[in-house]
Predict the 3D structure of the following.
Amino acid sequence: MRKAFTKLAILIFAIAVSTNLMAQNNYLGVGSGSTLTVSSNTFLVTENIFNEGTISVSGTLTNNGVSSTFTNNGTFTDNGTVTLEDLTNNSGKTVDISEGKQMTIEGDLDNDGTFTINSSASGTGSLIVEGTVSGNVNVEQYITGTNSVSIPDGRFWYLSSPISNATSAVFNASGNNRLWYFTESSGNYTEISDNSTALTVGKGYVARVTENSTLNF
C-alpha cells in the first residue's frame, strides 16, 4: 500500500511541475487535458508511460525499464532527446520529432496514428529503432533548389529513400525537378521523369530541384 501511495505522489508531482523534472522507479500517466513539459533536465521513468494529454520534451526523457512501454493516446512532441524501450502510437494520435532532435527506441515502434520526423532549414530529426517498425512513418528531408521557372541549376543532392513504399512522386520528378540514379556496371546516370517509379531503400539517387523544398517520404 505504501508503494502505491509513493508512485501516486510522484505522478501528481510530475504533472503539476512542468520544468526540471526528475523521477525514478515509477510509472507516468498524463490524463486528457493535462500537459507535461520536460524542459532542461532529465526525466527518467523506469515503468510504463501512458499519455492521453500532451507531452512536450525539450530536455531529456528516458523510459527504458526491462519491460516498459510508452503508449500514446494524445500528442507527444520530441524537442530534445528521447530514449524509449517500446512505443505504441494509437490511431488518430500524433508523435512529432522536431528538427534537429533525436529519438531512440530500443525495442519496437507500433504506429497506427501520425508519426513524423520533421526537417527544415534548421535541421533534420533523427529516429533510431533497434527493433521492428509497424505502420507508416512520415520522414521529411529539407533540400535547397534554384531556378523555379525552368531547369534547376542549384546543388545536386545525393540521398536515398528511408522507407519501403516511396515513389519518385516525393521529388515531383514529372515536373521541372530532376532525379537520376547511377548504374555502376555501365557507368551511366539514368533519369527518372515520372512520379510512379518505386524508390529502393538504401539505393542512391541524385536530385536537383527548382526551389527550397521539404520532401515527405
The chain has one helix and 24 strands. Residues 2-16 form the longest helix (15 residues).
